[in-house]
């Protein structure tokens, strides 16, 4: 089969590799579509950081060149001997996160915090290939939701947004501020609006703001434009109860802390690249909540992600308008994303095509 193989910084090659043989608890999928994200681009341009290229991963045991891709949708073509809940021909999504099911955190339903957590496409071979073997326990049958394979490939990033929303305890009477309307920010906008919250979105890119409006944001702010977030909140007489900092930028974090009123919940979705100073005294005296969020819980977040994706009548072409080939992964996917000039909110790859095609979302 053909696969994109990461060898090191700036070195991803399309190679012929053997089709994997599923273990007893795994499915073999023919990959329909797989998304790439900022983590993939970061590994390509400055890594390896998470990819176990030079040293064996402590959980997966993988070491050496690796096939990335952790946002996976595919059709089951074979099942391991112990698999009973999936059959050939099913369209499934894999959440990619592998947990033990036995540790302190797994037994409490927090599988994303498993002591032996690993992820397909980050710590062992993933989905940027024609076929991928995935643990059945990471998968959900997409069939009952009536979504297309391209839409199904958006389920993993949508589940990240769903988990962040759960961590923020968002409810219909909340006013949410979302800073950063890229991939996760866009999905979070839709999820929050569907939950009935009043949503304000801030982003530097006007086209992303336009899409955020279509996804349900009631208020839009472009920083350094005519009006700041603080001024917009004051003019509209809004008091945010939850702030989602998605950009991962120092400016975004500073803004979140600056606009947070007493008792506000700040969910730190974007990862800061360097340590930051925070005035903890103010956090205590105003009862701010700084909330971390990481990955997703497959049993609750992935199914909800599919439900949300299926609920949008207009489809998701504005988020992922095209699917590109493996041969175009670097030039039209990883490089533009790492250089912050990608024109797509989400880039999908179809390993079975030779040229870019329009996505099919309905």
From TrEMBL:
One of its GO terms (molecular function) is zinc ion binding. PROSITE patterns: ADH_ZINC. Gene3D superfamilies: Medium-chain alcohol dehydrogenases, catalytic domain, NAD(P)-binding Rossmann-like Domain. Keywords: Metal-binding, Oxidoreductase, Zinc. It holds the Pfam family ADH_zinc_N. Residues 183-310 form the Alcohol dehydrogenase-like C-terminal domain. InterPro entries: ADH-like_C, ADH-like_N, ADH_Zn_CS, GroES-like_sf, NAD(P)-bd_dom_sf, Zn_alcohol_dh. The keyword Nucleus does not apply. The keyword ATP-binding does not apply. This is Unannotated protein. Residues 24-141 form the Alcohol dehydrogenase-like N-terminal domain.
